[in-house]
């Protein structure tokens, strides 16, 4: 440690390495935590494509980063002046990395071990909720969106999911007859692809939506899409869901 109390690069490098393999390539005092990432300078390269769509001034705002991983987005929110940033993840290794990154950068961020399914236990809503790169790792993705809507989001949701399948979105009718089936084969119909075993050598990949499905799920959970600044990223505003509180799974409409 230097005379100013800051960690020297060699010490940062040693401690970062001791925390295991990093998925977030962070710049910690000139030390890169994942310089050989298969996606390049990730997630900074992703962030640069949609950073302009997130409020630049978050003074007085609260932020919840669900699935915070190594803390990259939590730190970016704090740099924008957020009054409070809470990052949650279920992986102890990621949380240890995030806490170390916050220590090195001197940013006041709280990190907790919490599943997206448990956001109701926080007992509070946040002005901005980040839900980036999480949906496709969940066995129950729509439930997660419902719970975020009902318990965590006050205003904005910034959402990102890996997408596969068709990029086009076709209009969907209000209703289809029981004998109508051809719409399910059309590329632009909402589809959620199930991964029974692995995808990309990752056993935690469960469901991958096409674009139409990602957008339909957001609307169904009660999020109005304000913009799509990047192919997989949506900035949404919380509104009232069409079918009532989804997490309790009521009948879908008055005569379902």
Automatic annotation (TrEMBL):
An example Gene Ontology molecular-function term: methyltransferase activity
Keywords for the protein's UniProt record, in alphabetical order: Methyltransferase, Transferase
InterPro entries for the chain: Meth_Rta_06860 (IPR027554), Mo5U34_MeTrfas-like (IPR027555), SAM-dependent_MTases_sf (IPR029063)
Superkingdom of origin: Bacteria
Gene3D superfamilies per record: Vaccinia Virus protein VP39 (3.40.50.150)
Pfam family, one: Methyltransf_9
GO biological processes: methylation
Record-given protein name: tRNA (Mo5U34)-methyltransferase
Species this protein is from: uncultured Acetobacteraceae bacterium
């Amino acid at each position: 440690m230097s005379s100013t109390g800051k960690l020297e690069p060699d010490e940062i490098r040693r401690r970062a390495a001791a925390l295991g393999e990093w998925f977030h390539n962070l710049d910690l005092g000139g030390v890169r935590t994942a310089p050989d990432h298969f996606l390049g300078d990730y997630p900074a390269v992703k962030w640069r494509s949609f950073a302009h769509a997130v409020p630049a001034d978050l003074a007085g705002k609260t932020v919840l980063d669900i699935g915070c991983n190594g803390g990259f987005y939590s730190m970016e929110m704090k740099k924008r002046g957020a009054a409070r940033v809470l990052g949650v993840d279920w992986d102890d290794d990621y949380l240890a990395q995030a806490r170390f990154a916050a220590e090195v950068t001197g940013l006041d961020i709280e990190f907790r071990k919490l599943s997206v399914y448990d956001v109701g236990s926080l007992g509070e809503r946040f002005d901005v909720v980040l839900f980036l790169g999480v949906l496709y790792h969940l066995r129950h993705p729509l439930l997660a969106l419902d719970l975020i809507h009902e318990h965590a989001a006050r205003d904005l949701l910034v959402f990102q999911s890996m997408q596969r399948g068709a990029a086009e979105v076709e209009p969907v009718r209000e209703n289809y007859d029981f004998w109508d089936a051809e719409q399910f084969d059309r590329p632009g119909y909402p589809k959620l692809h199930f991964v029974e075993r692995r995808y990309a050598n990752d056993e935690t990949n469960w469901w991958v939506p096409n674009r139409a499905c990602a957008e339909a799920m957001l609307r169904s959970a009660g999020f109005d899409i304000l913009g799509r600044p990047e192919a997989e990223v949506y900035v949404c505003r919380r509104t009232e869901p069409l079918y009532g509180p989804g997490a309790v799974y009521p009948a879908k409409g008055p005569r379902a």
